[in-house]
Amino acid sequence: DTVFRTEGLTKVYDTGGAKVHALAGVDLELYAGELSVLLGPSGSGKSTLLNILGGLDHATGGRVWFRDLELTRLGDRALTRYRRNHVGFIFQFYNLVPSLSARENVQLVTDVAPNPMDAAEALERVGLKHRLDHFPAEMSGGEQQRVAIARAIAKRPEVLLCDEPTGALDSKTGVQVLEVLREINDEFGTSTVVITHNAGIRAMAHRVVRFADGRIASVEVNDTRVAPH
Ligand code: ADP
Ligand code: ADP
User: Fold this and answer.
1) Closest residue by Cα to residue 224 from 200, 203, 197, 201
2) I need a labelling partner for 200 at 20 to 30 A (CA). Which of 124, 164, 177, 221 fits?
3) What is the mean pLDDT of the chain?
4) What ipTM score was computed for the predicted complex, to two decimals?
5) What is the dihedral of CA 2, 190, 115, 5, to 10 degrees?
6) In testing the pocket of ligand 2, which one of 87, 92, 95 has its CB within 8 Å of the most ligand atoms?
7) Is any ligand 1 atom within 6 A of the Cβ of residue 13?
């Protein structure tokens, strides 16, 4: 099944004078249950695409679907509902609330989601059973990102969109965080899209989409995806 499909997707930023063609006609299909990675140089349009897929931003042309739902036809309220009901986000900087413990950060989501995991269960799932009552400042970067992953998966989203989740981590810690994403993808079948420069992702991804200048340069399917250990 297709989870996302785009057709001639464009995004033009008009910053008063110079127009930036961040996406210059993207036709892409991503499949349910897969872990897809977006690669390409800085400025090639990866974040712009991820934000449009996640309903955080509007395209300026073309069409995009989440399953049968055409996102490019939704108004802001419907787009917000789509985001809340279906999408988990993970960003480079963990966006945790510093005054709340790991458990309380996750509870911000589990208190309002329709069918959430227990906060402690979500944290246990990312290997942080021993950090439930720790505050962000008491945790390493990798641990903070795992709290952010727990928060994202706690509402059981169908898709996880990850924009440079390892960007602030050393490469070894980054691989550990990617392993957690891979395990979640394996266990729950969560369709996952990751932007990362960490080379460790290559063996974990089902599909590698390479961007250049707002277009797709290549799509590579990984037949040798390593099984979880
Ligand atoms: P990547 O994620 O591959 O680094 P981006 O999607 O962030 O690329 O950016 C694509 C292009 O769009 C770049 O030229 C970038 O400078 C431009 N861009 C991104 N966001 C904005 C914005 N809010 N306003 C103007 N230009 C932007
Ligand atoms: P909510 O009101 O439940 O936070 P939103 O639809 O406003 O839902 O946002 C969905 C998720 O995306 C939330 O976890 C929110 O923190 C995150 N989010 C939205 N916009 C941004 C952004 N620009 N930067 C970082 N996180 C964001």
Assistant:
1) 203
2) 124
3) 94
4) 0.73
5) -20
6) 95
7) yes
